[in-house]
Amino acid sequence: MQNCSQVRPSALGVFALRRSWAMLALVREVVIIFAAVLLYFAVRGLVDARVVDAYSNARSVIRFEQWLGIFHEPAMQRLVVSHDALIAAANWVYIWGHWPVIGLTLVWLHARHHDVYSRFRNAILISGAIGLIIFVTFPMAPPRFMTDFGFWDSVTARSNSYRVLQPPSLVNKYAAMPSLHFGWNLLMGIAWASYATTRAGRVFGWLMPIAMLLAIVVTANHYFLDGVAGGALALVGLATAGVVTARSRADVARPPLTVTARPVQQA
Question: Which residues contact 96 (CB under 8 A, 6 or more apart)?
């Protein structure tokens, strides 16, 4: 009986300690996200004053796509908008396939694959930081604002859900390049394809980024090149996060430096 009474308080103490560490980890994640949101607001205020530059940059990208022979976004949207089911599906993917998928995937990684969670979290932060710099230096109007090219804002016209997930007052309207909407979904797709233990999860990881790339184009929120740039930036973020994670783990695993005292020899 005496042994049981001694073990129980010890076990409760370990449980309380683990719970405290879990709460501290959660608070740290919230602080990181809050800091990222503050940066986003600061950048949004800088970009809103450069409307002329945003439209000029959009026309430059359109001309470049035309020169490459890949400016097919208006034709793709015309094919979709003639079918209510297709435009509804594209809107749904664009709205509900982004932040909800990112949030649930990060929770899943944190709970089931904690050893790789920090790599994907850091990949989002690194690519996001680089993206903010690009948004400031190269603001660009999305296709939905370029109505003279035949684009139509399907999300605003057919859905109210996006106003709930991302209120207009909080959205950077001139952050089309690069498309982190696609880039971050690509990261989540890589996570599912790499670490899901079911076939359905791995298939989801492969198909979800493809669906998002199509959705950002046919809803007139991004150009093809926005998606290419966003995907490349996300991969750079993932590679950089991998290097940072490997180095931090190596530093933790490195044995501490020991100093051996030599006896003083007497003359």
Answer: 161
Rounded to whole angstroms, how far apart are CA atoms 46 and 141? 15
What range does the domain containing 85 cover?
A: 31-249
CB-count burial class (<10 Å; 0-12, 13-18, 19+) for 152: buried
User: In DSSP terms, which residues pair with 175 in a beta bridge?
Assistant: 140
Using CA atoms, how far apart are residues 119 and 110, in angstroms rounded to an integer?
11
Confidence band of 20 (pLDDT split at 50, 70, 90): low
Indicate the number of domains in the chain. 1
Render pLDDT for 249-264 as a digit per residue (tens, 0 to 9): 665 555 655 555 565 5
188 in a structural domain: yes
Closest alpha carbon to 131 in 36, 35, 30 = 36
Cβ-in-10-Å burial (0-12, 13-18, 19+) of 130 comes to middle
The answer to whether the pTM exceeds 0.90 is: no
Is 107 inside a domain boundary?
yes
As a whole number of angstroms, the distance between CA 95 and CA 158 comes to: 12
Whether 25 is in a domain gets the answer no
